Amino acid sequence: DGGITQSPKYLFRKEGQNVTLSCEQNLNHDAMYWYRQDPGQGLRLIYYSQIVNDFQKGDIAEGYSVSREKKESFPLTVTSAQKNPTAFYLCASSFFTGELFFGEGSRLTVL
Amino acid sequence: GESVGLHLPTLSVQEGDNSIINCAYSNSASDYFIWYKQESGKGPQFIIDIRSNMDKRQGQRVTVLLNKTVKHLSLQIAATQPGDSAVYFCAENIDTNAGKSTFGDGTTLTVKP
After folding, report:
1. B51 confidence band (pLDDT: 50, 70, 90)
2. Which of A28, A55, A88, B109 has the fewest CB atoms within 10 Å, counting from its CB?
């Protein structure tokens, strides 16, 4: 079945460590996105990519990095520069226009 | 002026009643709006969408109303069921070609049996 797969579902990180969250889609979507969700709040856009080898910063890109080497993959690295990384991270994809299809999310906790 | 519904962070309804969830969007240039449903611990799922050239759109048990004059969006759920309990988000697209959405704060709907 087509869909978006995020891994890992749960991740623990020590302060000062970088971690990478995986996102893969087999929907043949052009665009991919990373959102952050904090408890009781809406989604905030971190980065998005409309085509391979190109991506743009969203509203809260500081402390994060991404790559888009393949159409199917859009990994997110949470760097040590991100001061408050504990959150629920959601990856999504879409055609050039239209609704977003979300993965099941990755919950990152900083110990 | 015209009265519109206020956004509420939580809404509790009895099973079988109709639910109305409200959302105010920020940019008058937005031309595409989407409602998502997010169950606990999961990613949001698409419910229904509407473009700015429409005022109303109906789906199965759901209706979305768009009032561009006051920048207001509402989601109506008919005969609400326990499975409808979730957080509901509205999202606006300022640039349809980018497919990049700005999300509202969300409303937690609780359905009492």
Report:
1. very high
2. A28
